[in-house]
Amino acid sequence: MTLVKRLSLGVLLAITISISITGLISNYMIDKKFDQYLVDEHETKVNKIRSIISELYSEQNGFSDLNTSEIFRYAALEDLYIEVRDKFNKRILATDTMNLYHKKMMESMMPNTSNLKLGEYIEEIYDLNKNGSKIGTIIIGYFGVSNLTSGGLEFKYTLNKSFFVSIFIALIIGLCISIVIAKQLATPLVKITEASNEMRHGNLEARVNIKTNTKEIGELSNSINYLAETLQQQDRLRKRLTSDMAHEIRTPLTTLKTHIEALIDGIWEPTKERFESYYEEIERMIKLVENLRNIARLEETNLNLNKTKFNISSEIEKVIESFRPSFHKKGAQIISKVVPNSYVKMDRDKLKQIMYNLISNAYRFIDDEGTVKVSLKHIKEYLVIEVKDNGLGISEENLPHIFERFYRSDVSRNKETGGTGIGLTITKAFVEAHGGIIDVKSKLGNGTVFTIKFPKN
Question: Ranges for the HAMP domain (predicted)?
């Protein structure tokens, strides 16, 4: 079932149930009150007739012609049969019942009252009292059920009919409104589905362009577009990585092949310098393969951390010391400003990997005689590690993407500084796995500062 049908039927069902319950309760309450009103009205009418007859009747003379005519007119007006008997049960006055039967037949034949059922003929007997004593009997007859007259029945019939008409009109209006609302909700969702299917079939250029006032649908649309842009960017980065890796692996292999062919053909003599060159090329390929292996490790950063308590100051100093020979050979400096004897509960190996990635990254991008400063300090509830260099820096265009997988800026694509573009991604994942935050500030030509904040244990 489509969303439009489901929403339309759901709204229509809710409206039907609500109106039906409201109508039934209202109709029941009105019927109950109206029936009570008719009973009270009937009693008032009867009491009035009894009072009139009591005033007009004389025990010695009975009714005058004028009084008789007045009683007849009242009976015809109120659709009643009135009979008066004296205390000896002798009939003194009786109105015409044919008038009542005639009215009943005429009303039942009329189109708008064909469904009215006046019921059977009913007679009620009351005492005729005067001056506190019984002087006769009054008989009042009428057509009806539980004192319900033809006017009352017609009113109830009209009321019920109006309820059904109102329900029908409300259902039509509710159906129209539900269809409009359902289409407003379903149309953007259909477009989002179409764009998602396009992405699923490989078209990462697909985007959702909809205008909606519904907050959730707008957020969903933006999320789908963001997902498409992210996937598209990741796809470009993967293709770029594949191309870079193919180029960088092919270059040393081609060099090795050419040199070995020269040795086989006797063009070159096997010397120590040539073998050292081959060894460097092999080391370079091993490094490339190791970086490829790190891609798989990146997917495993959500594994449980092996946390132990250790001296983080000592571990950072050890990593710094391991880099000093490389810095000395390059003519650069690595400066340590580490607060001593700071203890943490972390994964020791992953901390070493974090520091190694940041320091090696800084080392690659500093010039000869450049400087890298590594510091550890306490700021409020955080343990802050900072790695600062005065190297090439990162452009504003590349800065937002440096933590993305496989991303490499154009300046890092040469042989000396090249990498796979996942070192910083792994670093960020390790930092966040410990509940930390990593931030970077850089300006092209003015160096880079990486700052890590770990919450104190």
Answer: 183-236
Q: Cβ(55)–Cβ(126) under 8 Å?
A: no
pTM: 0.47
Task: List pLDDT tens digits, range 284-312.
Answer: 788 777 767 766 666 554 556 789 999 99
What is the DSSP track for 172-228? HHHHHHHHHHHHHHHHHHHHHHHHHHHHHTT-TT-------S-HHHHHHHHHHHHHH
**CB contact set of 386 (below 8 Å; sequence gap of 6+):** 373, 374, 375, 376, 377, 449, 450, 451, 452
Give the pairing of strands 437-442 and 382-389: unpaired
Q: Exposed (0-12), middle (13-18) or buried (19+): which is 395, by Cβ within 10 Å?
A: middle
> How many other C-beta atoms are found inside a 10 Å radius of the C-beta of residue 317?
16
Q: How many residues does the chain have?
A: 457
β-pair partners for 448: 389, 442
Strand pairing class (382-389; 448-455): antiparallel
